[in-house]
Specification:
The complex is a heterodimer of chains A (112) and B (152). With 112 residues, chain A is of the alpha+beta class. In chain A, 60% of the residues lie in helices and 12% in strands. In chain A, helix 1 runs antiparallel to helix 4. A 7-stranded antiparallel β-sheet of chain B has the order 1-7-6-5-4-3-2. The chains are: A alpha+beta (112), B alpha+beta (152).
């Protein structure tokens, strides 16, 4: 069972997993410059629509993007609050050390 | 400035119920480090330690999907069992880093206090100057967030 690094924060494991793929990071960067339809996202990567949609589902489940139907297309938007939480963990040395000390205490106190 | 502002230095202390020599050795032995290094939920997949002044270390933390960050440094002071000082850089990163970590191990109440003093941490203002550098997840994420303040 994945453990969230910061207790009352969104599921950071899902966010890190979503951002672990270079194509998904590229999609996130593109949406950082403004909303886009699924075809607009697929085009620069020469991905098929089903191919890019698979990535969009992962990003949506992690709370990083939303998709809304507009006419016959779907418009994708970036949601930054979840990214801020992930960034806070990634760059926060205090959270890193605090968590590592927890792990160390568990290790050293149980290892005889 | 985002609400994830990083201070320039930090100090954190934790008491563990173990003898100081064991604590120091577990902190510097790669076979131990892979079992505990990193916050809960993040795996340590590799540790290489050249434990001498001027020697380097590399420790790899893996995120749940397999993306990894590499933490590297060079030892400045090795004073077994009471003090360790080394530099600290995280890869990937486009930000130049000049961080320093001091770890003091102090005997108390039959156990050991571990005090970590981490200085030279880059601030968000410094990172904002590197808009052009998308290298890896860490820096790209920071880059992206600084272009998108929270909606009010």
């Amino acid at each position: 069972m994945p453990t969230s690094i910061l207790e009352s924060e969104p599921d950071l494991d899902a966010v890190f997993a979503a951002l672990g793929h270079p194509a998904r990071r590229a999609i996130v960067t593109r949406l950082g410059r403004g909303d886009a339809t699924v075809s607009e996202l697929a085009e620069p990567f020469e991905m098929t629509l089903p191919g890019v949609s698979k990535h969009l589902v992962v990003l949506e489940r992690a709370g990083i993007i939303t998709r809304a139907r507009v006419g016959r297309s779907r418009r994708c938007s970036l949601q930054t609050p979840v990214l801020k939480s992930a960034e806070a963990w990634l760059t926060s040395r205090r959270d890193f050390w605090s968590g590592s000390l927890d792990s160390f205490a568990t290790f050293i106190e149980n290892d005889e | 400035m985002t609400n994830s502002a990083v201070p320039e230095s930090l100090q954190i202390r934790r008491h563990v119920r173990a003898a100081r020599l064991r604590v120091f050795d577990a902190w510097t032995n790669p076979d131990s480090i892979v079992h505990w290094w990193g916050p809960p939920g993040v795996r340590c997949s590799h540790a290489e330690i050249d434990l001498r002044v001027g020697g380097s270390f590399t420790i790899i933390n893996e995120m749940p999907d397999g993306t990894s960050i590499h933490i590297k440094g060079i030892y400045k002071t090795i004073d077994r069992p009471q003090r360790l000082v080394h530099s600290w850089t995280i890869e990937p990163s486009a930000v130049s880093q000049d961080e320093r970590v001091e770890i003091d191990f102090t005997e108390r109440d039959g156990g050991t206090d571990i005090t970590i003093t981490h200085t030279g941490i880059p601030t968000p203002d410094l990172r904002a100057g590197h808009q052009a550098g998308w290298i890896g997840c860490l820096d790209g994420l920071t880059n992206l967030i600084e272009q998108h303040p929270d909606p009010t």
